[in-house]
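Hi Y.,

Following your request, here is the sequence exactly as I used it, all 376 residues.
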Amino acid sequence: MAHTKKNENQPAKPAMAVGKETVMETAPFEYQIEPGRAHPLGAIPDENGVNFAVFSEHATSVELLLFDKHDDPKPIHTIQLDSYKHKTFYFWHVYVRGLKPGASYAYRVDGPQDLHGRGDRFNRNKVLLDPFASGHTDTLWNRANACDSEDNLATSIRGVVIDLSGYNWEDDRPLNRPLQETIIYEMHVRGFTRSPSSGCQNPGLFAGIIEKIPYLKELGITAVELLPVFDFDQKEVKQLSPVDGTSLTNYWGYDPISFFAPQNWYCKSPEAGNHYTEFRDMVRALHKAGIEVILDVVFNHTSEGDHRGPTINFRGFANSTYYMLSQQDRQYYMNYSGCGNTINGNHPITRKLIVDILKFWVTTLSTAIILSRKSS
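Below is the corresponding structure, written out as tokens. Let me know if you'd prefer a different format.
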């Protein structure tokens, strides 16, 4: 049966019943655990609670971790999903009645380590980010700790439950300007306003772009093309500076870790789950000024890299589904992207993921997407 416990390493009090579930009580448990539904994927709140759903075809165990605060090193409750009540085909799901938006969460997933056969890389020691998370915080994140086989709970990424409903677009509509009349400004969100010379009160953030709209209008810009805003690991060290030897981290963002979440470093209050509010505020303000928003996106690889890279999400949930693996030895990844791995767009689950992402950013966030590139 599904059960919860507080702070995994603490002794639990006697079990008690909550609804039809078993709870290992070490603190007051104010939630009710229900089977939930398989779709939509992600953490979807409603007026009574939150539905959690993830895909993992070969997992034998899935645990949902709930944190009191985004930077707590340990969860306040761990919910063990019952494979009979909380699994439909290959989808694991649970409804937590009473949970509210703003809650921080993550997963542990266990299953076979079949590196040379099917290519599965399950490791319960690794705390995983929901692949469909609407936002996350990386306050405690240590990338190196996600690369070995040891437990990384205290330094893991946490998802944030975000309510996407109720935003006031104020009659915002797509501008639909003919392409021949479009003047595009290609822009890095952080780099555009990061310098003190920008004079922005919110340098390097989505809010900073709003402050510079008069400047864009003065230039005659009719559309901004934003370099990657899908959440990426800005703490990833790419190389050392040849000038002073300091770490050079991921600036450009062409290494996504979460396709549905706006980059948390571009937000003023990611820990509060304001990712979408801040992004949509920017889009709405640009549209009001007659400026369209185009996104430069990455779908051919992720930040998890090759077999030596970190286990962040996709690798830990369904490695052989989401990635193209070597037919000679499936512990290795096909590296057509030149970035360590290649997304397996041949698999129907992965294709659905990409289509869902496109629909989401266009319909929910009112942006346009750039998909193609010229062949060399």
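Residues 10-26 have pLDDT under 50 and may be disordered.

Thanks again,
Q.
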